[in-house]
C-alpha cells in the first residue's frame, strides 16, 4: 500500500502534466492513492487537466494551497494527506516507466530495513525516446553515504520513502534549491537506510534552461551556505567543505555553455 505525492504550480505546461499523470495510470503496480498539491492558484488549462484526471482516477486527492509556498512547504503539506507509510515522489513534468513502482515496492519487501529507495533517471529534452544522458548513483547504503559528502545521493523525482523516517528527520525544510538534499543528509544523520536501484525507472525532463538556473552568483552563494550547514552538522570535514566549494563555485559562475558541457560530459553518462 503506497501513496504518490506531487506538487503542481502555475508555470507547469499542461501537456507535460498530462503525460506525467498518464504514466501513473500505466504502472504494472498501481498506487493506492495519488496526492496532488496545488501550490497556489493555477491556470485554467492546468485545472482542466487535473479535473479530467480526477474523472479517471478515483484515488486522486487534491490539496489546494491558497498561495504558492515553494516545493518544500508544499510537499510537507501533501505528506499530511498521504494515508500510507510508503510514499513515492513524482514531478509533474516527468514520466515514470511502467515498472517503476513494482520494482521499488519489491526492494522494500525484500529489504525491510530500507527507508529510502531511488534509482537512475534518463534525462531528455524533446522526447523520452531520445534521452540525452543518464544520471547514475551508487547502489548500496555505505557508498550512498560517502557520495552524499560531495553530491546529492538521491534522484528526488523517482524516490520512494517511508513517511515515518522522513518525519522523524524533520520533514522537508525550507532551503531554496536544496530541499531534497538537505532532507537526505538529515535522514542519513538520523540513521535512515538508503538504496538506489541500478537502472533508470523514470524519464526526467530537462532543458538548456536547467543549466542556466544552476548557475550564477546567487546559486553559488546558496550552495556555499548549504555546504556550511553540512559542515555544522558534522556531515563533512573542513577539508571536504573546502574541496566542495573549490570544485563547485567555478562551475556555478562559469558561462552557461561551459556549465552545460560539464554536466553532460563530466557528471552524466
Description:
This protein is of the alpha/beta class and 269 residues long. The chain has two domains: 205 residues, Alpha-Beta Complex (Spore Coat Polysaccharide Biosynthesis Protein SpsA, Chain A); 55 residues. Helix content is 43%, strand content 20%. The protein has eleven helices and nine strands. Strands 1, 2, 3, 4, 5, 6, 7, 8 and 9 form a nine-stranded mixed β-sheet that branches. Strand 2, helix 2 and strand 3 form a beta-alpha-beta unit. It starts with a strand and ends with a helix.
Q: Biggest sheet: strands, sense, closure?
A: 9 strands, mixed
- CATH topology type of the largest domain: Spore Coat Polysaccharide Biosynthesis Protein SpsA, Chain A
Task: Give the CA-based shape.
Answer: globular
CATH H-level superfamily of the largest domain: Spore Coat Polysaccharide Biosynthesis Protein SpsA, Chain A
CATH architecture of the largest domain: Alpha-Beta Complex
- Intertermini distance: 34 Å
Rg of Cα set: 18 Å
Q: Portion of residues in helices? A: 40-55%
Mean pLDDT: 92
Overall tally of domains: 2
The stretches of 5 or more residues where confidence is low (pLDDT under 50) are none
Number of helices: 11
Could you name the CATH class of the largest domain? Answer: Alpha Beta
SS elements, strand count: 9
Order of helices and strands: EHEHEHEEHEEHEHHEHHHH
Supply the helix-strand structural class. alpha/beta
Q: What proportion of the residues form beta strands (DSSP E)?
A: 15-25%
